[in-house]
């Protein structure tokens, strides 16, 4: 009797779970799950953490950051030339508006990634308990060291997001890049933060590797959609939990399909 290893049963990329149908199904199920009272209540924790973080960051760093940015802006020859031209033309001073915008672009994403990290580490287990118990009750939990893996993943993704965001801020001065870079970095944060947390409690390390490899494009497409939704300020309230629900449904559905594909040859 031969039991094939998980690596030997990766199906073609055309599997429905990897395509638009699987992603649409995950969003539909997540929307239904989000309307449950438990999940509505779960929205409060990451939102309050992000809000408190934003208030503290603005209170502690807004004035010194603005003063530092004004000093740095005074050293930028191109900015000074454009600013002098705009003032001479009777328009407005570019630096008066540019400095607060840059300060907000630095501080607010920090509070946002903090809320997402809190959702990944503390709220995602509640999401998995709710989703797993109701729709994937037969799916055995084979994950190991789930909490440690989740915390480490949230830490390095948050640091990578923060470093990448700050390093690419100068490119925001090129008009289309502000939106493109914002969408890219939030897609990175959603994908790398939540695709692992969605399956870490149920999937074994070998299964996690297969699922991430097989469904990588699907996970990234979900992250891109969530990142685009993130451009709408009202979505900030529910997005940390809602995106977790989408990833949970997509990841657990993919894991369920993976285990159904295992066969025993007699």
UniProtKB/TrEMBL annotation:
The keyword Transmembrane helix applies. It comes from the Bacteria. This is EI24 domain-containing protein. The keyword Ligase does not apply. It comes from Bordetella genomosp. 6. It is a multi-pass membrane protein. Keywords: Membrane, Transmembrane, Transmembrane helix. It holds the Pfam family EI24. InterPro entries: CysZ/EI24 (IPR059112). Coiled coil: none annotated. It is found in: Membrane. The lineage of its organism: Bacteria, Pseudomonadati, Pseudomonadota, Betaproteobacteria, Burkholderiales. The chain crosses the membrane at residues 39-62, 96-128, 149-167, 173-191, 218-239.
């Amino acid at each position: 009797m031969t039991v094939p290893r998980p690596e030997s049963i990766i199906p073609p990329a055309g599997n429905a779970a990897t395509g638009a149908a699987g992603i649409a199904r995950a969003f539909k199920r997540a929307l239904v799950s989000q309307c449950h009272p438990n999940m509505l209540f779960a929205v409060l924790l990451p939102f309050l953490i992000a809000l408190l973080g934003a208030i503290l960051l603005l209170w502690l760093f807004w004035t010194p950051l603005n003063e530092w940015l004004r000093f740095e802006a005074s050293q930028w020859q191109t900015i000074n030339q454009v600013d002098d031209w705009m003032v001479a033309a009777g328009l407005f001073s570019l630096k008066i508006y540019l400095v607060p915008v840059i300060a907000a672009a630095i501080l607010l994403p920090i509070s946002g990634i903090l809320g997402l990290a809190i959702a990944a580490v503390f709220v995602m287990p509640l999401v998995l308990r709710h989703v797993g118990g109701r729709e994937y009750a037969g799916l055995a939990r084979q994950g190991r060291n789930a909490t440690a893996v989740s915390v480490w993943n949230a830490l390095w993704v948050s640091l990578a997001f923060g470093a990448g965001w700050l390093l690419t801020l100068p490119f925001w001065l090129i008009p289309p890049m502000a939106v493109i870079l914002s969408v890219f970095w939030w897609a990175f944060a959603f994908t790398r933060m939540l695709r692992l947390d969605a399956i870490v409690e149920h999937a074994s390390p070998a299964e996690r590797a297969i699922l991430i490899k097989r469904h990588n494009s699907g996970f990234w497409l979900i992250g891109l959609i969530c990142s685009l939704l993130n451009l709408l300020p009202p979505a900030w309230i529910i997005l940390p939990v809602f995106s977790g629900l989408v990833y949970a449904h997509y990841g657990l559905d993919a894991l369920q399909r993976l285990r159904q594909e295992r066969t025993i040859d007699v």
